[in-house]
Amino acid sequence: MLLDVRNVVKRFPGSDQPVTVLDGVSMSVAAGETVALTGESGSGKSTLLHIIGGLEPCDEGAVIFEGTDLTGLDDAGRASVRRSNISVVFQQFNLIPSLTIEQNLTFQAQLAGVQASADDLAQSLGLQGQLRKYPEELSGGQQQRVAIGRALAAAPKLVLADEPTGNLDETTGSAVFELLVAQARDRATGLLIATHSERLAGLADRRLHLSHGRLTG
Amino acid sequence: MTWAVIRALLSHWRRRPFQLVTLLLGLSLATGLWSGVQAINAEARKSYGEAADILGGGGLTELVRQDGAPILPQTFVAIRRGGWLVSPVVDGWIEADRGRVRVLGVDPFSMPAGTPAAMAIAPQDLTTMLGRNGVLMADPVTATRLTGLGERLQTGEGIAPGLLLADIEAAAELVGQVGYDRLLLDPKQPLRQTPLNEIAPELQRRAPETAEDLGRLTDSFHLNLTAFGLLSFAVGLFIVNGSVGLAFEQRRPVFRTLRALGVTARRLVWLLTLELLAIALVAGVIGIFMGYLIAAALLPDVAATLRGLYGASVDGALTLSPLWWLSGIAIACLGTALAAASGLIRVARMPLLAPAKPRAWAMATGSAMRWQLALAGHSLVVALIGFAFGELIGGFILLGGFLIAAALALPSVLAVLIVAVARLAKGPVATWFWADTRQQLPGLSLALMALLLALSANIGVGTMVASFRTTFTGWLDQRLVSDLYVTLENTADTPALMAFLETRSEAVLPIWHVDAEVLGGPAEIYGVVDHPIYSENWPLLAANPDVWEQIAVGEGALINEQLSRREGLAPGDPLLLPGGWETTVTGVYSDYGNPIGQVVIPLPVLIDRYPQADKTDFGVLVDGDTEPLKRALSEDFGLPVENLVDQAALKAFSLSIFERTFAVTGALNILTLAVAGIAILTSLLTLASMRLPQLAPVWALGITRKTLGRIELIRAVVLAGFTFVLAVPVGLGLAWVLLAIINVEAFGWRLPMHLFPRDWLWLAVLSLAAAGLASLWPARQLAKRPPADLMRVFTHER
Prior knowledge:
Chain A is of the alpha/beta class. Chain A has seven helices and ten strands. Chain A is globular, with a radius of gyration of 17 Å.
């Protein structure tokens, strides 16, 4: 198993008592598998993805990635995993505004020490002719394509996508979602994708539903 | 990987070159002003060090007469015969171009080996230097000021600026003195000697004179310069802090992305530190060049100031030591570290998923206002402690505490002021304007604090200088009583001059004097004749009712304010004078610009007690135009024209020295104001990029972009205006501290404070213009902003 999440609990401080956002979540993702994670706003989808990506610590449980418990790693260890093996695609794109599209596309690959061709990525993502531009010159859909390209360029084993279409209109969102799933499958990359949309979730190999911090399906 | 991260970090500056320029400019200016002032101080101190070393015999104990009179040659011979290894020194002054030159006469044969004076004399010069007509040595710059010494004068290395080194006999002749000022005690003495108090009981041992003596005297001036340098440095750092803080906040999404992509927090902080170090190095080098230019431009004026105020000789040329370069770079790095520390700490502690809030960052200082106010209170307490402590250092603590308290309290005071004015606002736009202005206050507070400091310094120092000028001019009118001042070439010509002037003038007033040591300090003793011109004009601060009657009958002595304050003397007190005789202080007079003590005694007493006095100067009272008499003295009596100076020329000369003295302060004032102007510009530009969410709704409600731009300009001018109004009392407080505390402690005289509202008006116009100019660009940018940019605020695409 590529990813094995075991009884993860996460609490945030509340006004009276801590609020449990994830309440003993266990799940797994196999290599090359696409898993959709659905749930209402505030159900804990983003928090779960952040914990898997080592962006946030959990209070209890374990996140086993290729046999290694990520929760036991220090900041440098978790950063190393994110650099080479787990990429994250955010809802807000999070491109580096001062770098060109070409530089953004190859950025994570450079961090991971992987050779990547910006031209090839642009070709596969439909971003031809955009390489010299800056993020602010692109539409939201185009920016999210760049973010997907950046995540895949480092050839990670798992991509975590947190509501990647949340900032896009429905048509653009669908196109981007399909592109992400297709690209992940082409590269045999595991994909855990959080989404509101039941329709888009149907494109995944498997669906999980999170409700009030617990997996229900 | 590191390179990719560096490129991502640096790309921010490529996209925002103006921000980089601002940062470099702020840091360079801060470094430049600081380094410039330090270079000037270092150069001056080096000169004092050289002078004190060579004058003080390199740290040897000296023998001097208790009454300050010269040591007679026979006493010297007796001491040598008593087995003591001593070497005589003659120490006096001669007139030269651009002031006086100190003459140091040494005995090359008995001078203890290893002393700077002995080392300054090359072996081949030993024989040519000997005797009354021997060679005289000076450094190349000083030599150009000594025009009347002919071929005897030679230049040499290792001689302090402003010093003429000569054989003891030649020196005695040049300064017109019989005997020696002191005897240097060789540290290696024979085992058996006759006790000194048996040979010469009138002599006493004196600890070696060091650079500290002159250093102490000039400390206040250098402290003043340093304070200005520090003020400019602090104002520059305000800019750096603002730029670095904003750059960090703007890049927060980048930091977050980098961290999400696998860059560790430690690596990020290290790379940011590296980036800051690179910026500090570049700005440091630029700053050092700026500092060099500032120092080179100001040093001649500083040298003139030090010569005029303290009689200290400073070489007017600038030499740079590697240490200066290194300290310049170090101060740039230190400044960057100070200004960026809070930003770096925030990045290090930043939660990985923290969103960027540049606007919140700019406004965050709002919550710090209460802290600032509390700190202002503490600074005020420190200032009061300084005031209670007294002395020069206490004065500077009072000054620093007061200024810091005023700057820290400014945002809160402005906020209160704006709320009060807002109550008077009528109409929606005016109401919005004041509310929005109050909201902008935290973002602009650093720049406004910088402006307050610069304006207060301008008003304070300006008031001090103008008060000084007014008092000085009035004092010159009183003090320069004679219409014409005549200097004889030779004392022997005195009777002939008196006879020549008898029918051609109303009165001849000898201005004869002797340089001496009074109560352990350097002083001048002048003789005055009994003439009503003195009693009518002499600027007395305190006196016995019959002061001039006593002078007329040959009794009593007037002393200057410096000597009075130094020794705590007042009318009626006894005064021990060189030669071991005592008289009574009958009056104290103001004597601005004189670094040393002065005593005025009846002329017959001076002639009787000090036959060696310089008797070449005369004041002449003339009925009407002085020109015919000047011509007659030049053509018929044969005096060189340069020996005849009329009152107007002397006043003009004195005032020109005065103006030059304060040229440095004026230049630093303007530079500090310029730095504050740049701080306003950078703050406004910084805020402009974050202002759209506030401005877009107002624009949507029907206020045109042009009007919005105009309002932005008005806001900057209004805030600068308020700051100016608050700077006036702060500046006047500063002036009072300078005049009533610092000046008295540093120079020994107190000046009355005069107010110059016209100068403030000019400064107000200047500061409003600076604020207006600084806001012109951001306002124009806003007026020209495409509507699409404003629309984006509503579509949440920003």
